[in-house]
# Entry
Amino acid sequence: MSTSGDRLNGKERKFPKGSAFAKEEFINLRAENLSYDAIAARLGVSRQCLQNWSKELNVEIANAKAFRLDAIKVRLRLTQIHRTEIFGEMLEKVRSELLKRDLSDLSTEKLLEIFLKYNRALVSEDTALEFAEMKDPNVMLNDTLCSKQRVAYSME
# Structure
């Protein structure tokens, strides 16, 4: 014999009221962007209950959506790493093809234009090496000793 808590609109619930499994399934279905009505029908839970769960579980739902989106990006090779690899491969193919080309049929004006374009690109890529400044070893030793003395005084 079922109690009124086990029934929803005269129908048997598919999960016990407030079941952890039902909530987990709700999180997954919301991550798949199913509507409350579709989830309510699938889980046998009221729409109001689902809205309450949504408030309670909003972080878990957002994380499930993020994991789902990440899995799709990895499957379709859309991550930043994949894009960089693809662009690098394409750049290498273009570079290889360009090296095969004879530029003798280009006008002087076009050759000069290309030369200046590549020259600007090289200049913009050129950066001076910058090294971090090293502290004087004596100053570093003094700083270390002072901090150890402060610790010793605070322990007394």
In short: The two ends are 72 Å apart (CA to CA). Confidence is low (pLDDT under 50) at residues 151-156. The helical segments are 20-31, 36-43, 47-56, 58-75, 80-100, 108-125, 137-155. DSSP finds seven helices and two strands in the chain.
